Amino acid sequence: MSGQSPSIVLSYDAAAALVLREAKRALSGLPARREMERVPLAAAAGRVLAAPVVADRDQPPFARATRDGFACRVADLAKGRLRVVGQLRAGEAWTQGAIKPGEAVEIMTGAAAPAGADCVVMVEHVTAAEGHVGLAGTRELAPGENIVAAGAEARAGAIVVPAGRRVSVTEIGAAAACGDAELTVFARPRVAILATGDELVEVTETPGAHQIRNSNSYSLAAQARAAGGDPEILPIVQDDGGATERAIREAWDCDLVLLTGGVSMGKFDFVERALLALGADFFFTGARIQPGRPVVFGKLATAYFFGLPGNPVSTMVTFALFAAPLLRALGGESECGPRFGMARLEEEVRVKAGLTRFLPAWVEGDVRGARVRRIAWQGSGDLAAAAKANGFLVVPETAELLTAGEIVTVLEI
Ligand code: AMP
Ligand code: MG
Description:
The chain is of the alpha/beta class. It has four domains: 9-35 and 187-330, Molybdenum Cofactor Biosythetic Enzyme, Chain A; 39-57 and 157-186, Molybdopterin biosynthesis moea protein, domain 2; 64-148, Molybdopterin biosynthesis moea protein, domain 3 (Molybdopterin biosynthesis moeA protein, domain 3, Beta Complex); 340-412, MoeA, C-terminal, domain IV (Beta-clip), CATH 2.40.340.10. It is 21% helix and 30% strand. It has eight helices and 30 strands. It has helices at 12-28, 74-79, 169-177, 216-226, 241-251, 271-277, 312-330, 383-388, and strands spanning 9-10, 36-40, 53-54, 64-65, 69-72, 82-88, 103-107, 119-122, 126-129, 132-135, 147-148, 159-161, 182-186, 190-195, 200-201, 212-213, 230-233, 256-260, 281-284, 286-287, 289-290, 296-300, 303-308, 340-345, 349-350, 356-366, 369-374, 391-395, 401-402, 407-411. The chain has a six-stranded mixed sheet with strand order 8-5-7-6-10-9. It has a six-stranded mixed sheet with strand order 17-14-18-23-22-19, sandwiched between helices. A five-stranded mixed β-barrel has the order 24-27-26-28-30. Strand 26 (356-366) and strand 27 form a beta hairpin. Helix 1 (12-28) packs parallel to helix 7 (312-330) and helix 5 packs across helix 6. The longest helix is centred in the last third of the chain and has 19 residues, at 312-330. The radius of gyration is 29 Å and the shape is elongated. The two termini are 30 Å apart. Adenosine monophosphate binds next to helix 4.
């Protein structure tokens, strides 16, 4: 990609595909490039596995009863009542050899089925009296019922969770079951956050009448952390070519640089010019989306950068669409794409075609599925509306009308 002509405006799809291409490239460079570390299992949520979780023994390690009841042979049950020859609790071993024809062992959930038994008949499904049990009613059992065979879930040595997976609830449970008190994870990619704008003051300062608090650095740091990064908020940069160049140069010792503001066509928008002067390659300099049209993506030496539009809702949306996938990939996460869901639209939405739109929305649901409705907003500067939203309703580039009741896509933020 040439650094000479920074005017590349793409459709959402094309821009997303380009980010994905770079994300794949970053992933294929792993793990050579990224450092790894060992973390205690209890502190591993949100980290990305650099080594798989492997079953250290068969799972289950023995033929496990999944119900309280009586372990026996299906064929015997059909013939009549069975003699109860013992009791097995979870954690106990059966030491009396294989059960013989006509015998049953009372068994608790989680106990190892005795040899010779091919089913567990549930305690609710038998009548028991005088040391014998029999099937109640006309129920039929199949061999294997209520027993999970040893190794049926995972064989010793099998990969239970692959490298590249973000550690969450299920991965933690699976790792604990495999005896991993610590996990090997990728080091978090370092993310530099640079807000630009003469009008900006820090959140700790009292703004003048025409000044604006820098909110983007904080929302971006939160998004970067959620996407697996280790963010550092750098001082605000004034709208000045030299200052912007100096700040960018100093920020470059990291994996990803996020700039906000200064990417529009205004006289005092210096970000693109500064990047160009420093020799950056631009993958795109705009996308046909709303909000976030002036979004810029490129690479300078070994670090990627995004120039995100300064309007706070644009910043959030463009991060979620483009920066989050790349950052996840830099952190080694193989499922790195943006997070979309489906929901039923509550009220119709009319827009002008030509841009893929991401409109603040409220999504809620129950077992029948999610529903979504728009949140009224004053445009991409409206943080108060964004704060009332929990997602963004996606309107495809060609659509002019989404009808009530239609199933639509929602971007998770
Ligand atoms: P820009 O992209 O620099 O043209 O900025 C567009 C709008 O976003 C302006 O109204 C800015 O005041 C606002 N803005 C830019 N940067 C930030 C920031 N870091 N925090 C909050 N608002 C910002
Ligand atoms: Mg600005």
